[in-house]
Each structure stands twice: as structure tokens, then as C-alpha cells.
Write a structure and sequence with these properties.
heterodimer; A: about 375 residues; alpha/beta; four-stranded mixed sheet; 16 helices; about 65% helix; B: about 375 residues
Chain lengths: ~375, ~375
């Protein structure tokens, strides 16, 4: 049994190494993507474009604007005479939000210590809109304090001794580095993509070219055949992962917090599961085109519902179940936990369990479903 | 012309015969639009947090119940010590810890400076940043009520334009739309033509009296028709099920979608001319179109945050312009006065691709 398997693996490797484009995919793609993609994946909100309608044009209003731009989050891209004109700026994407300061802004503020300003935000992207609103609210709060002090200087003495201070701490990421939270996740997704595509296309391409007939008429057991397909691609995927990990550590300078052994143990199991799913698709498909579309369909769902780009917490309840049944959720989270948080085996127990169960199911399924006769 | 029609009919039958591919072709857009339209949201809700309350007074209990009443946060547990905090983060169950020090309410009552600590899980910085901001606003509100200072000064009146409920769909659906049309047009066309090369049937076609461009055209037309049907079904779904508006002109949206579809078909044709095997064609389509589009078109990440070279790469991606156009027409309801530049860019890309396709095709046939 072992002899047959090792011959099959050798044969598979010979076939893989003959195809240059596949090799390029395995070794060059993860590096290029990992170097380029995290540069694009940046949610940091800065330079929010602001259209200002200042009806007051007073010392106070100008001071407020100065304070807002000094925060670094906002830049004023236009001054408009009325709301309608400012709204056009938003329509033309030249502004993300409108700040309208009313007439008598300074007068009312001084006299009644109360004034409203209108903030209208382009909310097509809800995240950006929510954050912009929240930054602006904080700046206004600060400005209010400043104005109060100006008007009643006797408060000055209590100012520094009273008040509420919130001390933020970003654990596992003291340097406030977006790359840190994205690179490990993207690495997990890349190896999933590579592993899934390569195995999904493999058996079906043999079906299409007809070479599978020769294997089918030979006395090879189904289990050997499937394992003979799985193991070489697993080795390749693990190699791709290792290259990606080197990029993570040396290009991005991300320090590995957890155990390398645990990381490899987890990725090994995870990749077997992903490759098993690829094989299952391959066993069911008739053409490469079909296989590719099926993989593409699932990959889109897997990546978008994995918590890599949007938090799983904010999904609707039924969507959360999809996220919990999605192996990429566990892959992305597992890698993050080990690399960034030094989580141990017990912390990853749910991850290991899910991935192992899923892997066993899909591989058994693929073996049972694979027919040697058509 | 008659020749072309016969040939298109033959190609169509070919496509229609493959039921499984057809199912994927129509099922995929429907499932994805619904799934992403409903499920994806970048809004933060029900984030699990823990509290380490060393204060144990009415004031701190009030603060906690105020936070608990908010839909953003769910209290998962009370921590006994800061050591438990690390464990809680490592298992990934909670995202933020609120630390209330022992002297918190004492300091508030006596008018001294009170402190709170918010520890967030920086391993997902995007989420950490959002929940930190929401939480500090809630706390600031609470403090405002506690100190009984009348809330004076400047008060913002916030108006959320186009998407008052801050749903995910208005942002994601136009993106998924661009993406699905791209994938179907580019991949299907590229592979359909390359497959003929691989199986050797292309040779047969090329020695037939049919003009080469007729062959290519006949291959592309069925996918064009399919894409238009898919486009219509996506639009119907978005409006009827996802409640998305089409505030602008439907015909304009349609006309531009057709330009976009043709552009993508041309990309598929160019790829198929340049490659010889299905695998290479797929991999090129995958690397050359799918990932860059997903990452650089502004659909997942804000374009203005990207380094300038990446923004420039993004500018040559047709889907980026189409995505902007769809958002403008559907969600904002703007017309030609805003998007004419985008349309010109798409048209330009279409022409360039057409020229490349014609030139390369001739070379390959010599």
C-alpha cells in the first residue's frame, strides 16, 4: 500500500514540476500578493474631505475650523455659500461631509452658550461615516470645553484636576499598526486560495484530458488515489505558507509571538481540510470551468464571511452561522491568535476540532464519491 | 451575417447544454447578492466585552448598565483580575475590556480627575478602533449626565446622507455587481475560447471558410446575452429584496453596464488569444483581474488610503470605474454631469482592448 502511494506521489510531483505556470503561482504569487495587498488594505480614516458652509465667518467659527483640521482627520476641500452648493460637492465626490455653521454662531454661543452645527455625511460607506461622525463629535466636545474656559476663566483651576480621562490601550498591537492585523489574515487566505484552486482543478483536468482513464483501469485503490493527490499538494501548500511566513516576519517585521510548532500543527491540519474540499469539488465536476466556478463561488463567500474584512460580530444571526461553518474563519482567526497573541493549544481547541471534523468528513466523502468507472 | 447567426446559435446550444455550468452561472450571482447584501455590514453590533470593576459602587454599576443597554456591546463576563484579561483575549472570545479603577466614583463625586481604561484587542485593529470610538462616546455621555452640567456648547446635528440606517448593502451591492459581471465575462469567454485550442477544435474552425473574427464574436455573444440577463436579475433582486433604490436613470445605468460588459468580454478575448491552456488562462484571469479588482477597486478598502502607485494600478481596472458609476446612479441618483469622466474612461478602455484584441489575433494566426 505504501509503495503504491509513494509511486503515485512521485508521479504527481513530476507532473507538477513540468508545469511552470503552476510553480510560479505557488511560489511567486504569495510573495507578491502578500507584499502588495496589505498596502491596499488600510481602513485608517484620515483626510476626510470636508465641504464647509460658514454662514457666520467669525473668530469663533474660524477657530473651530482650525481645530477640526488640526486634528489630522479632516481637510477642508471647499468653502460653499450654501448647503445646496456643498451638497453638490458631495455628489461629485469632492467632499465626504458637509459642516454647516449657522448665522449668529458666535453671538449665540457667547450669549446662550448653546449652538447647533449641521453635519451631513455621505453614508454609503457606513463604517467611514460612523467613524467620521464620532471623530467630529469628539473634536466638538473638546472645543466646547475650550470655549467654556474662555468665557469663565475661573473654571481654569478646576479644569486640570477634574474631568474624565479615558486611557486607551491596544493590546497585542501597541504600535497601532494596521499591517499587523491584516498580514497574518491575508496569509491564511492566500494559502487557502492556492490550495483550494490547485486541488480542485487537478482531478478534473485529468478527466478532461483523459489521462484519468489509465489510472482507473489500473489496480489502484481509491484511498491511495485520493491520498496520492492530497499529499503532494499539501507539501506545496505548506511550502507556500512557509514562504509567506518568511515575508510576514522579514518584510513586515511581524514578530512571531506564539509557538512555531503549534502554528505549523494548526496550518497542517487546516490545509489538509482545505485541500480535501478542493478534491471534493474536483471529484464532482465535469470540466475545469465548472470546478473553477464552484471554487470561486465558495472562496468569495469564505473570504467575505470570515471576519477578515468585516467583523463577524456585526453579521445578522443566520449569517453568523455561515461564518461559524466557514473554515476560513477558523484559519484566519487561528493564525492571528498564534502569531499575534501567543495563544496556546487549549485556546485553539475549537479551531482544531472544527477543522479536523470538517477535514475528515470531506476527505471520506471524496473517497466514497470517487468512481473509477463512469 | 447569416453565418454569424448560425454560429452564435450553435455556441448558445453549447452553453445551454452544460446544465451544471449554467446553474452555477445563474445561481452564483443570485446567492452572492443576497448573501452579501444581507449579511455583510461593517457596522459594529453586539461586540462581546468584559469588565474589570474594582470600584463596586452605584456609579460604576450605572455606567455598566448604560453600556449594556446599548446595542453595540454585550457584556460577556466580569473579570476578577487583570490576569484573567489576557486569557480572555487569547481565546478570542472578547474584544474589549473596560477597567474601572477603585477610586472611580470617589473621584467623580469629589470633583477630582477620574480615569477609565479601555483595553482593546489590537490584533484586529479595524474593529478595535471602531469599538474604542463608540465606547468613548457612550462614556462621555454618561459623564455628562453624572456631573449634571447642562449639556451646552456646540451640539452637532448629524444627518447621514443616502444611507441613514448605515446598512452594508448600498456599499457592497454595487461592488458585488461589478465583480460578478467581471468574473462571468472574463473567465467564461477566456476559457471557452482556450478550450477550443486545447482540444484542437480551434484548428478545425480556423481552416473553415469562416472569418476568424466571426468565430471570436460568435463565442462572445452568448456570454454577452447571459451577462445582460444576469445584470437584469441582479438589479431586480437589489431593488425588490434588498430595498436598494435606483435613484438615477435606469437606462443610463443599463447603457453603461453594457459598455462594462463589452469591456470585460474583450479582456477575456485578449487573455484567450495570449494563452494556450485553460489552466494558464484561469490563473491569469485570477491574478490579473479577480484579486486586484477585489483589493484595489475601492469596493473593500478606501482608495484614498492606498499608496499612490497602487491607486494608479487601481485606475486601470475597469471595475473600479464601473463601481463608482453604479454607486452614483443607484444610490446617489446623480447623472451624466457627475459621471461623464468615468464613462469616458470606460469607453477608452474598451477601445484600447478592442485594438489589442484585433492586432494580437492577427499575429497569432500567421
Amino acid at each position: 500500500m505504501f509503495r503504491t502511494l509513494s509511486i503515485l506521489i512521485k508521479k504527481e510531483f513530476l507532473q507538477i514540476f513540468r508545469n511552470r505556470s503552476i510553480l510560479a503561482i505557488i511560489f511567486v504569487m504569495p510573495v507578491v500578493q502578500l507584499v502588495v495587498l496589505p498596502l491596499a488594505a488600510n481602513y485608517e480614516i484620515k483626510d476626510i474631505k470636508m465641504a464647509v458652509v460658514d454662514h457666520d465667518n467669525s473668530t469663533f467659527s474660524r477657530e473651530l475650523l482650525r481645530k477640526i483640521t488640526a486634528s489630522g482627520y479632516f481637510k477642508i476641500t471647499s468653502y460653499s455659500e450654501n448647503y445646496r452648493k456643498a451638497y453638490e460637492e458631495v455628489e461629485k465626490d469632492r467632499a465626504d461631509l458637509i459642516l454647516e455653521i449657522p448665522n449668529n454662531f458666535e453671538k449665540d454661543l457667547v450669549r446662550e452658550n448653546s449652538q447647533k452645527v449641521l453635519i451631513a455625511i455621505n453614508a454609503i460607506n457606513g463604517t467611514k461615516a460612523g467613524l467620521s461622525a464620532s471623530y467630529l463629535a469628539q473634536i466638538l466636545q473638546d472645543y466646547n470645553e475650550q470655549v467654556q474656559l474662555k468665557m469663565s476663566p475661573e473654571l481654569e483651576s478646576t479644569k486640570n484636576s477634574s474631568g474624565l480621562e479615558i486611557i486607551p490601550k491596544f493590546w497585542f498591537n501597541e504600535g497601532y499598526n494596521y499591517r499587523l492585523s491584516l498580514v497574518p489574515g491575508i496569509l491564511a487566505f492566500l494559502v487557502t486560495l492556492i490550495g483550494g484552486y490547485l486541488t480542485a482543478l487537478n482531478i478534473v483536468s485529468e478527466k478532461e484530458t483523459g489521462t484519468i482513464e489509465q489510472i482507473n483501469v489500473s489496480p489502484i485503490r481509491k484511498t491511495d488515489f485520493i491520498l496520492g493527490k492530497l499529499i503532494p499538494f499539501w507539501i506545496l501548500a505548506m511550502t507556500a505558507f512557509s514562504i509567506g511566513l518568511l515575508v510576514t516576519v522579514f518584510v513586515y517585521g511581524i514578530q512571531m509571538q506564539g509557538s512555531l510548532l503549534l502554528l505549523y500543527a494548526f496550518i497542517s491540519v487546516y490545509l489538509i481540510t482545505i485541500l480535501g474540499m478542493g478534491l471534493l469539488v474536483s471529484v464532482y465536476s465535469e470540466t475545469q470551468q465548472q470546478a473553477m466556478f464552484v471554487v470561486f463561488f465558495f472562496m468569495m463567500i469564505f473570504v467575505l464571511m470570515s471576519g477578515l474584512f468585516t467583523p463577524t460580530e456585526s453579521m445578522t444571526d443566520w449569517a453568523k452561522y455561515i461564518a461559524y461553518l466557514n473554515p476560513v474563519t477558523y484559519g484566519v482567526d487561528g493564525i492571528r491568535l498564534i502569531i499575534l497573541k501567543n495563544s496556546g493549544f487549549t485556546d485553539l481547541l475549537p479551531h482544531f476540532t472544527f477543522v479536523t471534523v470538517l477535514g475528515t468528513v470531506v476527505i471520506t466523502w471524496a473517497i466514497l464519491r470517487y468512481r473509477k468507472t463512469n | 451575417m447569416k453565418q454569424l447567426i448560425t454560429f452564435v446559435r450553435k455556441e448558445f446550444l453549447h452553453v445551454l447544454r452544460d446544465k451544471r455550468t449554467l446553474l452555477i452561472l445563474f445561481g452564483m450571482p443570485v446567492v452572492q447578492i443576497l448573501l452579501f447584501g444581507f449579511a455583510l455590514s461593517t457596522e459594529v453590533k453586539n461586540t462581546k466585552i468584559a469588565v474589570l470593576n474594582q470600584d463596586k459602587t452605584q456609579a460604576s454599576a450605572d455606567l455598566i448598565s448604560k453600556i449594556d443597554a446599548n446595542q453595540y456591546f454585550d457584556f460577556e463576563r466580569n473579570l476578577k483580575s487583570i490576569h484573567e484579561a489576557e486569557e480572555a483575549f487569547k481565546s478570542g472570545k472578547i474584544k474589549m475590556i473596560l477597567v474601572i479603577p477603585a477610586d472611580f466614583s470617589h473621584n467623580i463625586v469629589t470633583g477630582k480627575k477620574a480615569q477609565l481604561q479601555l483595553i482593546t484587542d489590537g490584533a484586529d485593529l479595524n474593529l478595535a478602533n471602531q469599538i474604542y470610538n463608540f465606547m468613548s462616546n457612550i462614556i462621555a455621555d454618561y459623564y455628562g449626565q453624572q456631573t449634571l452640567k447642562p449639556r451646552l456648547g456646540i451640539q452637532p446635528e448629524i444627518r447621514m446622507l443616502y444611507n441613514p440606517q448605515l446598512k452594508g448593502a448600498p456599499n457592497f451591492v454595487p461592488g458585488v455587481m461589478a465583480f460578478i459581471l467581471l468574473i462571468i465575462c472574463v473567465l467564461m469567454t477566456a476559457i471557452a475560447i482556450v478550450r477550443e485550442k486545447e482540444t484542437g477544435t480551434m484548428e478545425v474552425l480556423l481552416v473553415s471558410p469562416m472569418k476568424p473574427y466571426v468565430i471570436i464574436l460568435a463565442k462572445a455573444i452568448p456570454y454577452f446575452i447571459l451577462s445582460v440577463i444576469i445584470l437584469i436579475s441582479i438589479l431586480i433582486l437589489s431593488v425588490s429584496v434588498l430595498d436598494l433604490p435606483i435613484r438615477g436613470n435606469v437606462f443610463l445605468l443599463f447603457a453603461i453596464s453594457i459598455i462594462f460588459i463589452i469591456t470585460n468580454l474583450l479582456i477575456g478575448i485578449v487573455i484567450s488569444i495570449l494563452t494556450d491552456t485553460q489552466q494558464t488562462a484561469m490563473l491569469i484571469s485570477l491574478i490579473g483581474t479577480m484579486l486586484p479588482t477585489l483589493m484595489l477597486s475601492g469596493f473593500m478598502f478606501p482608495v484614498e488610503n492606498m499608496p499612490v502607485p497602487l491607486q494608479m494600478v487601481g485606475n486601470v481596472i475597469p471595475a473600479k470605474w464601473y463601481y463608482e458609476i453604479v454607486k452614483n446612479i443607484m444610490i446617489k441618483g446623480t447623472g451624466l454631469e457627475v459621471i461623464w469622466k468615468h464613462i469616458l474612461v470606460l469607453l477608452g478602455m474598451m477601445c484600447v482592448l478592442f485594438i489589442i484584441a484585433v492586432k494580437k489575433f492577427k499575429i497569432r494566426l500567421e
